[in-house]
Fold each of these.
Amino acid sequence: MARSGQSTELNGLLGYQLRRASAMVMADLAVRLETLDLTPGSASMLLVISAKPGITQSEIGRILSIKRANMVPMAANLQTRGLLSRKRVDGRSHGLKLTGEGEALVTRIRRQIKANEKEFASRLEAGQLGKLLAGLAAMWQQ
Amino acid sequence: MARSGQSTELNGLLGYQLRRASAMVMADLAVRLETLDLTPGSASMLLVISAKPGITQSEIGRILSIKRANMVPMAANLQTRGLLSRKRVDGRSHGLKLTGEGEALVTRIRRQIKANEKEFASRLEAGQLGKLLAGLAAMWQQ
DNA sequence: TATTGTTATACTCTATAACTATA
DNA sequence: TATAGTTATAGAGTATAACAATA
């Protein structure tokens, strides 16, 4: 088990703390999503389609910062499993929508994410989660 | 450039925010450390040896959560470059120390890390960095 | 000329299994 | 029996380059 690292200057560094916290939280989330045969990436893709039905895979890639070349096997996998459907919107792009099964899976995804949040938010003092989320958002957005 | 992602439930999620913020900060840090021919991993290794001279590579791996098999090429690379020296402490393990050149490089690493911190801490409201660091530490330690 | 989807490919990180030599 | 260092290897995730079809 990863010991706390005791005293090193690393513990005062933003990049180090971000990396360790992210790795820990994402590892827990990955285990939970594995039970649904999903990765954090494919789960986030389903959430985006659920919020924006008809979106193209290139657009999803731009939102999630996933290269469109890497969206291809992800989308193909989810479609093969009957979780999403494609409909041509013009000659080169498809609008993606969740199937009923896809929407049902999104419900289960949300449950796993909530369990993940509960696990780690409980390690913070009351009312600190919102401030943490705001700080993190400021860090990478704009 | 990664757009902010507008309105998706993702923006309210701890795991998502951690992942995006960590990726952004680490990408910037990686670019800065590239100028020193280092990765965030090898740079953190040098910082640990600087703080704990005589430490073994397995022990560094435990502190940083890097598998000892993956420490091997990293340590070999740094030694080849004359940044660290090994001294047998018993028949199976070596104590690692930085050379003069290694210590000099650590000074430059700290400068790059400070520039990285400045870049991203400036996006927070005054006095929020400490709270953010404390929250992140609570997230993965213990 | 730019964009979508696609293929192929490479590179980095990380993980596991196995071996040796020591303890 | 457990540990340090090592080798080899496999799997993610991510990156680039190129192409066809379409806008």
Amino acid sequence: MIASADAPIATVDATVFSIEDGALKLLLHRRPEAPFAGQWALPGGFIHTQEDRDAEHAVRRVLKQKTGTAGYYLEQLATYTGPDRDPRGWSLSVAYLALVARHALGPGLTENVALFPVDDLPSLAFDHDDIVAGGLARLRGKGVYSTLPVSLLADEFTLSEAQRAYEAVLGTGIDHSSFRRKVLELGIFEETGNSRQGANKRPAKLFRLRGRGQTFDRSLGRTAV
Amino acid sequence: MIASADAPIATVDATVFSIEDGALKLLLHRRPEAPFAGQWALPGGFIHTQEDRDAEHAVRRVLKQKTGTAGYYLEQLATYTGPDRDPRGWSLSVAYLALVARHALGPGLTENVALFPVDDLPSLAFDHDDIVAGGLARLRGKGVYSTLPVSLLADEFTLSEAQRAYEAVLGTGIDHSSFRRKVLELGIFEETGNSRQGANKRPAKLFRLRGRGQTFDRSLGRTAV
DNA sequence: AAAATAGTGTCTGTTAGACATTATGGC
DNA sequence: GCCATAATGTCTAACAGACACTATTTT
């Protein structure tokens, strides 16, 4: 009764980032049906009001269904609206930023679900290019002063791995010594007591994030303006 | 056909901030009808897909209608969703942060549209308390490293006025000298050539924002953690 | 010992914050 | 002259960035 003909189509979409071979990559999904059948798009789908507790629940449901995994860091990005972004009518999409460790996605992915380097993306369905730009901007912008990039790693990680995650996200090199100093002084990581040794070298202490995600005052590396 | 019974109710809401008597205030609207008739709420309303180009257009339409003015700085905040936030059913509200100069609102407002100090708000309809918390967090968080607070001033303003706007937003005092130094070195303001003198004192140069809104690296005052 | 990565120490330029001082207007 | 506000100058402690150096493992 209330959801009249006036109500827009309501969907969710996710910009899923991960790090593979040291590079920041985006997870895309080839659409099996119209509109834009066969074209790459962000994983997404309709909100099911019968089933979903809220929009975040809808994204988790969709991601679980399309990728089989569940351990995503999720953060709401922005909502994209308008009469022309979907040929089916006036539509509204709540977009999310999602981060995962590469290993959580399983080894192969599939022919229709794949990772693309962020600087070499195919052209996307709907207004998904815009959404990707928004997701990248958020990740890069907030990455400088938050623990966001750490969500691209496993629960336990070495400081070098953490630094490489920040570098992949920010697209710049960070001084080794400065990184360690800042991160340790800020106390955003804590030692797990374990250590790992990657073939042939001195083993590194393993850390985990202390608390949930955080933002902090001091920046790690400069924003690439 | 597509907007089935499954589609949520789609609305927009705005957290409108302004500065009055040196204090940060929020614009509220007393609801004339059910649900929550008679209770204070954020100004908001349904998205009209026949009429609105996008969600931002819908907010501008609603704000124009409820306050009579149009010159709002607008920025999308977040989208609030769920089955319980509106008694009429599963609903989705795209929330906006809106900033205005006090004088743009006209002198008296009305009995049903009023400004309340942000630290002394009445209890609000729906989940609008949450939305206000989100708006305040955005304003305070981003205010430290952006020109957001300047959108609470007239087009021309003195540096002292700008500083008071930042102080009202951040809730802290800022050193006079540091403020001027930073703001001028960053070049975010430009002189208009005019000056104004507030009763009995040395007149101050007037500035305007250079370009549209900006964010910058250096912070103005510390975030009140 | 060599290679490779983990981890530490030190210097320098920049800058936020504090505080003191000068400038310019009305009375 | 006094008062109030505008505007500038100077000192210091904190810190990012750069770079050199030491430590610990496997081969």
